[in-house]
Amino acid sequence: MKTLGIDGCRSGWIAISLDDEGAGYWLLESDQELKEYLEEFDRIFIDVPIGLTEEKYVRECDEELRDILGPDYQSSVFNPPMRPALYSPTYAEASMTSYEITGKKISTQAWNITPNIKTVDQFLQDDEELRDKVFESHPELLFRILNGNNSILQKKATKKGLRHRLKLLKDRSKYADDFFRDIKEEYRRNQVDEDDIVDAMALAWFALQSTEKEMKTLPEDPPKDSTGLPMAIHYV
Q1: pLDDT tier at 42 (50, 70, 90 boundaries)?
Q2: Fewest 10 Å CB contacts: which of 64, 78, 159, 209?
Q3: Domain limits of the chain?
Q4: Nearest 5 degrees, angle CA 41-CA 42-CA 46?
Q5: If you ran DSSP here, which 8-state letter would residue 76 be given?
Q6: Cβ pair 221, 60 in contact under 8 A
Q7: Would you state the torsion angle of the CA atoms of residues 91, 95, 97, 99, taken in this order, to the nearest 10 degrees?
Q8: Residue 141 and residue 69: Cα distance in Å, rounded?
Q9: pLDDT digits (tens, 9 = 90+) for 92-134
Q10: Neighbours of 126 (CB within 10 A)
Q11: What would the CATH number be for the domain defined by 1-65+123-236?
């Protein structure tokens, strides 16, 4: 089974595989490239909201994730736009739709990742086979698990926080150190940030582990949205 971790970055998406038989990394700069990789691989962990509410402002999975991560990391969990607002052409229209239904507007942080949400959502709506192999996850939850289910004191935007996360990955994958260095050398910071690299590697590691261990979700019995997509954060 070919596994892949994908994280959004400035130039599109950074995709990493830690499989022994096909380890590698790729910068996906178009929707078409992303689609091709989603189709090619058998198990993908991706850091993007999948499954959107119709009426609630906050998904249950995001509430549970914030509780687990604690107050220092709650800001890393965005409330994605509701499905009725997702395809609005402007922030103002999407935010007004959200406000009319929930009494709360969409945050600018959530709106900034809306293009990525729409892209993945459209692929999953058009091709139901992708629903069986593309799973939403969250790097900070994964790093917490790698850290013995303890919070990492320094955030990934700091040098200490980044080094800590990279060491957790290096302790588990022989590719982590080389991939981190090679991606930094091959791509500019305005294409891929350092934290995008470690996030994608964490997603890749857990996608690989999910082929041998039980895959779990937040919440344990996730609801599905109006299109049948689970509203869940996946981990091992």
Answers
A1: very high
A2: 159
A3: 1-65+123-236
A4: 75
A5: G
A6: no
A7: -170
A8: 7
A9: 999 999 999 999 999 998 999 999 999 999 999 999 999 999 9
A10: 9
A11: 3.30.420
